[in-house]
Write a structure and sequence with these properties.
Helix content is about 30%, strand content about 30%. It is α+β, with helices and mostly antiparallel strands. The strands form 3 sheets. Strands 1-2 form a two-stranded antiparallel sheet. Strands 3-4 form a two-stranded antiparallel ribbon.
Length: about 80
């Protein structure tokens, strides 16, 4: 189960999320990792973009790579 909460307070936005502690591979699906081994579910990409995910890691990784590609392209066009 995931928990991701966002709240707007005036011009500020706060986001909190839990960490993924369940191992993603099916052969160890019920194995719980320690909190030190958790995966952060919210990533600040730049001062204007923050991404959170819930569920499987692989689709989130693909989406983050695509966002990075799009952002890089836009930066090259701007400069």
């Amino acid at each position: 189960m995931s928990l991701i909460v966002a709240r707007k307070d005036g011009s500020k936005i706060g986001i909190v999320s839990d960490t993924k502690l369940t191992h993603p591979h099916h052969e160890t699906k019920n194995h719980k990792n320690s909190p030190k081994e958790g995966i952060v579910k919210t990533v600040i990409l730049n001062e204007n973009l923050c991404v959170s995910f819930a569920g499987e890691i692989e689709p989130a990784e693909l989406a983050l790579k695509e966002i990075n590609t799009i952002s890089s392209r836009r930066l090259r066009i701007m400069f």
